[in-house]
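ENCODED BACKBONE
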Amino acid sequence: MTKITKKLAETPYTSTEGLEVGRRLRLKQNKLVANYCTPSDTLDTLARSGWKGDLATVTALPFAKAVVIPMHTQCLVMGVSSPTCLDVVTVWRERTVRGVKGKLVALCTTRHCSDFILSRGTPRMAGEPEGKAPALTTLPTRLPAMQTIDMTPTWSGLLPVMVHILQHSESESSKRDIADELTKMARAADRWNTHCKEQCAVLEQSAIAAATAPQTASQGGK
């Protein structure tokens, strides 16, 4: 019999495959994260996530606010940003200080799947009433397939930055680099113009050949 050396519940995820929107995942350890949504968007996302608490009791953190999420905090999957990264929304209660109960806070963030531990069922999250947590079927939608976005910058988009560097940079190496890139751009434009001229010449020759073909055929028939 194989000896199990690590509990299944402590096994981190290795990919987003098979996960569903609405799945509740437990954070493996304390994590410093930043909120990527505005407070209103955070509360709207939380309302759509299947969380069953009272939104009026939740304080959504400001956009780009960096905080530490406590370990074992439950997070709700809201999307996928790569084969190994998840968009999640979470809510937790801050620590009690001098007998004053900490407030509920929420944020949206993106984390690597290995930050989360395998879990079973749908455990109750902070701020939810006592009782059985909602079933996963509240949000049965599968995670969307990853889409590739071409982020290659255009020359027209880079040109203002290049001009600014040439005008204001005190670094001679930066100016040389920009000059080299502009030279490459000019050479590429020259090659494109040459290509277009060659294509126009080919099309023109094809048009002339097509126009003279009937005349040649009729003369041959005579």
In short: The first helix runs from residue 39 to 48. Residues 8-130 form one domain. The CA atoms of residues 15 and 84 lie 5 Å apart. Helices lie at 39-48, 155-168, 172-221.
